[in-house]
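protien #1 (seq + structre)
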Amino acid sequence: MHFSIPETESRSGDSGGSAYVAYNIHVNGVLHCRVRYSQLLGLHEQLRKEYGANVLPAFPPKKLFSLTPAEVEQRREQLEKYMQAVRQDPLLGSSETFNSFLRRAQQETQQVPTEEVSLEVLLSNGQKVLINVLTSDQTEDVLEAVAAKLDLPDDLIGYFSLFLVREKEDGAFSFVRKLQEFELPYVSVTSLRSQEYKIVLRKSYWDSAYDDDVMENRVGLNLLYAQTVSDIERGWILVTKEQHRQLKSLQEKVSKKEFLRLAQTLRHYGYLRFDACVADFPEKDCPVVVSAGNSELSLQLRLPGQQLREGSFRVTRMRCWRVTSSVPLPSGSTSSPGRGRGEVRLELAFEYLMSKDRLQWVTITSPQAIMMSICLQSMVDELMVKKSGGSIRKCGLSSERMLRRRVGGTLRRSDSQQAVKSPPLLVSITSSSEPWLSSKLSAVSLRGIGSPSTDASASDVHGNFAFEGIGDEDL
């Protein structure tokens, strides 16, 4: 997640009290909440009490007198760095203290009272699942409500996630972000004030080996099947005419497991595709379509004559990556910071091991750059869990969360359930793909390459534990 405080606001106090400076906290470029310095100071003090001062990043000190405009801007920058550092810390960023603070602030900023509401969640095939939740329910609460509605077992909930998407005119989904533990899904989607934005349930893992766990259950099998059919119809999964014929035959026979087994062998199975964007590889300003999956980023482009080419960048060869944002001022503008700016330009840049001892930065310019970065991090996390012998299987709900389920509410397993509908038969879709980059890169040791390049400061860079933690045999 990318936290930023791009601007401040001067606001009047309650009941005509003295004015104060409010800090607008943005998550992935979208306003999440508006807070005062004193609230952030209270969060800092609580975190220090729980984890100790030596764990926390520096917090901007109090001032005895009113701040000048320059000091306000300096404090804004310091608070932004503080929030980013806390979020990126594995201990602090996952703490209930930090996440509950952001949830409360989001609800207060959007002025949404706590009440029971209906919330619509879509499956990958467009099927609607209507659930009753509280406006104050966090992401995990909503995910559990969807699972209960579909009769998905508790131990399979961890294999799925909720995503915020924007539905385009052609019905395709443009993925905005994965909903996080620090936000309230109902508030997140309604605060955007547009019918284009939806919440979608989709599998959250990358390694198709985990499909075996999910397919043991009828509901899990149906969810995977519906998602795969949808991905093929959208052209996300690349199929030949013969493969398409075989898939359609299996679909007609309702052989869902066999259908998925064949789909697992196809290029881009289980990948997440992003909107068309621009990269500086293989040349500057090259139009590409980026997909994430199978521990790689895939860049597809069409050459003259409509010939499709694909470059694959393995996550284990990425030394590090960073997301940068810039908001160019209009020509001739002298606007103050955070005012009168144009549209935010986001870039994902990663340092890639092109050949032995040769690292090169590759930059992708896309409004979905942050989502791409999140995908990279989750692929690295999954690789490291697998390497350590761990599992992503969820062992059921904790006793605390079981007690939080509302008696008489919609989270009980006995409530009315909804079946996953079988998708219509596949329409004819054909694609071709030719290996381009990955086959030309020889497997080399990733140990001892050195520290990241000095092009970016350490606070801007996501270090990749899989780069040094995954050996040659895994490449």
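ok now protien #2
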Amino acid sequence: MTGNNFTEVMFFILHGFANHPKLQISLFMMFLFIYLFTVLGNLGLILLIRIDSQFHTPMYFFLSNLAFIDIFYSSTVTPKALVNLQSIQKIISFVGCFVQMYFFVGLMCSECFLLGSMSCDHYVAICNPLLYSVVMSQEVCRWLGVIPYMIGFTNSLVSICVISTLAFCDASINHLFCNTTALLALSCMEALNTEMVTFVLAGFTLLRSLFIITVTYIAIISAILQIWSAAGRQKAFSTCVSHIMRVTVFYGSLLFTYLQLDNTSSLTQAQVASVIYTIVIPVLNLLIYSLRNKDVKNALLKAFQKLFP
């Protein structure tokens, strides 16, 4: 549309998987189960870390922060998606859409840098084990925990501010939630400057956090290779496996979704990828970090034995 010949959009329609009506009930049940498992499981993990003194270490401090992000990350998207799967009018208000996008982008960026903080913790534990308690002091851990939120929500605020200045010709979003790429595609105006700002912010978040993770793991791998015993190398590497798995899945889905050359192509694939990193990935915190951790499993077993003697 040209000039100012457009109407003001007061709400958006989240179509999601509306083009697959036979899957609505199945998706609703699956998303509900995953959401409840994510929230209850991560709350249990945070509580366990809080009350059990053996988990009062930097690694579990970061893990509890990751669980916190996963709870609210999933809660930002999944409840509204569940409502829309069972309703005819899949509407979200204009303000509600931007609030959802603000928290979604902020938490997503925060998780990127929190994964970077966790890689720094692994680096110190493996490369400088004798200085670990000195380097990873409570103050350092607090800053490594707070800085990801500061950067993430600052990036999100800038993105929301520039996108909110656009005028929108259409209200139909072919996703389960409001995201930047979907809203930019609905703009009536020339959005090159806005696209550049959001692209730079997304690139800063992805590349800077990936750079931190890559550099630390190069140093970690180098240190592991210098360990003479095979058992020692295996023990050192096993501490990083869970983190590597989480980073691979998380960044893989993000890169697939946000770095597509054509946002209109492979729409179904983009929807599936968005479901993976918004609904499925938060539950991986439990499956990857908790159920594979012997200390956590033993602590959970003791807790259940106390509750149900």
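The chain has one domain: 11-292.
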